[in-house]
Structures are given as structure tokens and as C-alpha cells.
Amino acid sequence: MERDQRLAKQLDRLERELGAEIILVDEEGVDRDTRYRILRELDLGGKHYAVLQAADVTEPEAYVFRVTGAGENCRIEHIEDDTEWDQVAEAIDEMLYFDET
């Protein structure tokens, strides 16, 4: 599969606008605010997604979020739909595969 036939296009909008790390604010007050490293950003079907990893832990877990808005109006949202999540996960796997080759 060639680069222009891939499922998703790599982005760097969050990193350009906000830096390599961001702080997610829990608007519901359930969890504390958490600093995350931006591992990867992608556009899939015109939607922006980000793969983030908590900056203060040594666990290799990463989390996938949908990004809406831009700049001061930027929002990081959980992906609630299983089908959407599966499509994004597949696109990320594809990007990782091509990074290794």
C-alpha cells in the first residue's frame, strides 16, 4: 500500500499549536488534571485524532482521543462509538507499520 492510499494522514496541529505536551482538564471534576505527551496525530475521514500518553507514568499505555475545534476552542474527547474506535485503531496500526518499514 502506497503512502497516498493509506487510511489516514499524519498531522501535527496540536503539537504546533500547544507543544509536545498538553494538560487535559477534567471538566467534570472526577479526575485530577493530567499532563500528556502527544505521540501521534492523524486525520481519518476529515476528523482529527490524537494518541496521548500520560507524561508522569512509566506505563507504556496510550490513549486515543478525537480532537475538535482549534486553538483556544480545542477539545479532546473520548471516542464513544466502537466502530469509530476500531477504524482509528486500524489506521494507527497502519501508520506504525509504515513507520517500521
pLDDT below 50 for ≥5 consecutive residues: which ranges?
Answer: none
Secondary-structure class? alpha+beta
Largest sheet: 6 strands, antiparallel
Report the order of strands and helices: EHEEEEEH
* Number of separate strands: 6
Helicity level? 10-25%
| Strand residue percentage | 25-35%
Can you characterise this structure?
It is a single chain. By secondary structure, the protein is an alpha+beta fold. The protein contains two helices and six strands; from the N terminus they run βαβββββα. Strands 1, 2, 3, 4, 5 and 6 form a six-stranded antiparallel β-sheet that branches. The radius of gyration is 14 Å and the shape is globular. The protein has helices at residues 13-18, 82-100; strands at 9-11, 21-24, 34-44, 47-54, 63-68, 75-77. The model has no long low-confidence stretch (mean pLDDT 85).
Topology, element by element:
Elements: E1 9-11, H1 13-18, E2 21-24, E3 34-44, E4 47-54, E5 63-68, E6 75-77, H2 82-100
Antiparallel strand pairs: 1-3, 2-3, 3-4, 4-5, 5-6
Q: What are its keywords?
A:
single chain, 101 residues, alpha+beta, six-stranded antiparallel β-sheet, 2 helices, 6 strands, 25% helix
